[in-house]
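Researcher: Structure prediction, please.
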Amino acid sequence: RYPMQLDAIPQIKHTDNNNFFLLAGPCAIEGEEMAMRIAEKVVAITDKLQIPYVFKGSFKKANRSRIDSFTGIGDEKALKILRKVSETFEVPTVSDIHEISDAKMAAEYVDVLQIP
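Model: Predicted structure follows.
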């Protein structure tokens, strides 16, 4: 078993306190205002408690069981919001990818790619 190297994640804070780390955010990026509001509140809490934090939000929900379910606001639009969260709050971001073809595009905007 290999220990996770949190220091390898750009912009991550509070890694020297041996605390757990948190990946949290909206299930899907539905709009800028919502993402920014969530990030502001979670960053304030994690900074106060010295918890390493990575903002999580899916730019595309490709794993829906119903064909008419919400899948996103547009890939690039959602990814730009994730970048803005990172730049505004100086936190790393993570998003999941479901297609190999999404990896390159998503990697241009977020710090960590999650494969569910």
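Model: The two ends are 20 Å apart (CA to CA).
Researcher: Thanks, that helps.
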